[in-house]
Amino acid sequence: MRVRHKQPTLVSMWMLDVFCCALGCVTLLFLLNSRMAGDEAIANKAAIGDLDTTKLKLAAVLDDLEKTRLRLNSEEKGREKLAASVSELEGLKLKLTDEVTQLSTQLATTRNEKDDLAKKLALAQKEAKDAKALADSTQLALNAAEAKVTSNAKELATTRAMATDADDILRKKQKEADALAKKLIEITASADELNKLVRKRDDEKVVLAKQATDLKKLLDDLDAKTLASRKDYETAQATIKDLSKKMNDANVNIVDLQGDKAKLADKLDKLQKETDARFAGIVTAGKRVVFLVDISGSMAKKDSETADPTKWPIVVETVSKVMRSVVGLEKYQVVIFSSSAKWLFSNGDWRDYEGEKSIEDVKKALTAVKPYEDTNLHAGFEKAFSLREQGGLDVIYLFSDGLPTSGPGLTLAEQTRRPPLNELELGEKLGKHIRKTLTDSWNRPQVGKPKVKIHAVGFFFESPDVGAFLWALARENDGSFVGMSRP
Fold first, then answer.
1. Is 457 within 8 Å of 399 (Cβ atoms)?
2. Do 463 and 329 belong to one domain?
3. In the prediction, which pLDDT does 277 show?
4. What's the average model confidence in pLDDT over 247-251?
5. Contact of 465 with 424, CB cutoff 8 Å
6. Residue 112 falls inside a structural domain
7. Chain segment 146-173, per-residue pLDDT in tens
8. Which residue in 35, 156, 244, 356 is a FRET match for 341, CA 20 to 30 A apart?
9. Do 243 and 283 fall within a single domain?
10. According to the 3-state scheme, what is the secondary structure of the chain?
11. Are residues 312 and 385 located together in one domain of the fold?
12. Which residues form the domain of 447?
């Protein structure tokens, strides 16, 4: 009986499972490696190539295994060859195991490199964020510095301009004072000369009167002598006529001198009144006068933060002094203004000026007022000039301590600007609008009506811009300005 060898199916199936598992592991590792190393494709190109080569080798081995299995099924003698193939497959398995180990090591290395790159990227992103924050803060600081430089330059230019204007005003006022002093000296000298001339003429008049008395006596003597001699009488008559003519001429000269004396006395009196009718250099005169008084909160403060209980009483007393010094005052009215304007008395009708009684009425009413809110000078002028159409308006006396802070004069963009305009910029724009409105509307020339004079009195202002605004306002409206920078 022929001995038949049993077909090695167990060995073949085990080997097939090994190869399938190996193939599955390789495929799984390949897929895992592909997913984890997607961002590192260039660095892992060599590994992927090795995996492809391994796959090809596995496919070839499987193909050989299938052929071997077929051969084993067909002939028993192939067992020795199959054993050799198994040995070869074992070697290939070991080789594949080594390659899998190497690929795992490369995968771990790639993961570590990826983690390092991620850490470096996070650090770089943080440094970039910090650098951007530093750049932003530096830019903000630079912008603030540039704005401050621009503001300082503008303030410096404004201050220099105001200093120049102030010097011009000081020189002008000094020149006017010198001229007035010189004129007063000349008037005094003229008055002395006139007094001397009048005394001299009085002396001449006494002499002429004495001469007239002597001539009359002589005439009487001549009349007596005419009885004795006709010739002497005719001569005496001629002499009398001549002397009478001289006496008449002397009387005419005396009358002329008396007229000159009266004229010079009137002129001296007028000059004296003009000299007395001044308040700190402002000529105070007018028949119909409006006193425009600022009652904003600053009129009771030394500065923006410090209250001054003595300031408002000084303002009230100053208004009284100015009112008392106005020459020819017949009608008056008082307008008070802060954020809005109103009449101090009744509904704004002209009030008769009754001397000290009117002054006491104004003083009492102003003393009862409490300064508050901001400065709407536009509203104050608008109400004051309403009297120009209601029976005439000669002069406005303005009493204030600051630039306007509210009222019309800003564009929509300036009103909604963020940050808003500072106090100096706001006062400059509103002040220009008020001066333009005075020129174009309120105080424009009218036929048969003179221009309204505006005198300004400033109180305790620290900024030269306040004095410059009030001075320009008075100058453009034929008025004068006087400022008190401290109590």
1. yes
2. yes
3. 47
4. 73
5. yes
6. no
7. 777 577 677 767 767 776 776 777 677 7
8. 356
9. no
10. CCCCCCCCHHHHHHHHHHHHHHHHHHHHHHHHHHHHCCCCCCCCHHHHHHHHHHHHHHHHHHHHHHHHHHHHHHCCCHHHHHHHHHHHHHHHHHHHHHHHHHHHHHHHHHHHHHHHHHHHHHHHHHHHHHHHHHHHHHHHHHHHHHHHHHHHHHHHHHHHHHHHHHHHHHHHHHHHHHHHHHHHHHHHHHHHHHHHHHHHHHHHHHHHHHHHHHHHHHHHHHHHHHCCCHHHHHHHHHHHHHHHHHHHHHHHHHHHHHHHHHHHHHHHHHHHHHHHCEECCEECECCEEEEEEECCHHHHECCCCCECCCHHHHHHHHHHHHHHHCECCCEEEEEEECCCEEECCCCCCCEECCCHHHHHHHHHHHHCCCCCCCCCHHHHHHHHHHHHHCCCCCEEEEEECCCCCCCCCCCHHHHCCCCCCCHHHHHHHHHHHHHHHHHHHHCCCECCECCCEEEEEEECCCCHHHHHHHHHHHHHCCCCEEEECCC
11. yes
12. 278-484
Mean pLDDT of the chain: 80
Backbone torsion region of residue 402, taken as left when φ is above 0, otherwise alpha when ψ lies between -120 and 50, otherwise beta: beta
**Integer Cα distance of 300 and 401 in angstroms:** 10
Domain boundary among the residues 272, 294, 329 is at 272
Q: What is the CATH number of the domain that holds 474?
A: 3.40.50.410
Of 243, 330, 320, 303, residue with least CA distance to 460: 303
pLDDT of 246 strictly over 90: no
Q: Rounded mean pLDDT of 387-411?
A: 91
**Mean pLDDT, to the nearest integer, of 25-30?**
83
- Verify cis geometry, omega within 30 degrees of 0, for the bond prior to 450: no
Single-letter code of the amino acid located at 471: W
**% of the chain beyond a pLDDT of 70:** 79
Rounded distance between C-alpha atoms, residue 444 and residue 452, angstroms: 9
Decide if pLDDT at 347 tops 80: yes
pLDDT digits 0-9 by tens, 109-123? 877 877 777 787 778
Looking at the structure, do residues 206 and 294 belong to the same domain, yes or no? no
Going by pLDDT thresholds of 50, 70 and 90, the confidence category of residue 275 is very low
pLDDT of amino acid 292: 98
Strand partners for 255: none
Please tell me the total count of domains within the chain: 2
Cβ–Cβ under 8 Å, residues 284 and 392: no
Query: For the residues 292-305, what does the mean pLDDT come to?
Result: 90
Are 445 and 416 found together in one domain?
yes
pLDDT digits (tens, 9 = 90+) for 90-143: 787 787 777 768 777 877 787 787 777 778 777 867 876 876 777 677 678 767
The answer as to whether 191 is a domain residue is yes
